[in-house]
Design goal:
Blueprint lengths: L3 H11 L6 H12 L3 H17 L1 E2 L6 E2 L5 H4 L4 E8 L2 H8 L6 E5 L17 H9 L9 E4 L5 H14 L6 E4 L15 H9 L5
Parallel strand pairs: 3-4, 3-5, 5-6
Antiparallel strand pairs: 1-2
Helix pairs in contact: 1-2
Pfam family, one: RecR_C
Family: Belongs to the RecR family.
Keywords: DNA damage, DNA recombination, DNA repair, Metal-binding, Zinc, Zinc-finger
Length: about 200
Amino acid sequence: MYEGPVQDLIDELGRLPGVGPKSAQRIAFHLLATEPADIERLQQALQKVKEGVVFCDVCGNVSAETRCRICRDPKRDLSLVCVVEEPKDVQAIERTREFKGRYHVLGGALDPLSGVGPDQLRIRQLLNRIGTAVDGVDISEVIIATDPNTEGEATATYLVRMLRDFPGLSVTRLASGLPMGGDLEFADELTLGRALSGRRSM
């Protein structure tokens, strides 16, 4: 335990996701040795993130304007929507350069034990988007790209139930299976089972 502001800083840094006690301590002492101008830049960046970042009116992604860069892009396929949990998932899919549609960010996943139900997520906005032609184009396919964990699967199942009554709408789920470079002997049963059921012709 350190005295005063240093310990307060370590405690606050330790509350960040992925930052353990040792990392928090390292960052705190790095900041302590940093030039005042660098600290000021960090403070300004943090301030701007709270004041200058908005969420896209269409998809819910982080943006500097009312519509994000992806929703403003006229080359995107408006009939295709990929549903993800968080804005960071949008970036993960964008890095593949395979998806040419738009996104819908839920803002999390269903987790009743933590008090996250359908009303805490952007599910109603998704249903409204599908029920209304966006920029004059009807949505024909929704790809559910929630995380392959308990909460993500529960969210996917709930969405499928909500979306199956929309006429002419195709609802798909991201395939899951074996990672490239992996060995079969180290794959768990669920992953291997999904790889088998999701096999494709060569």
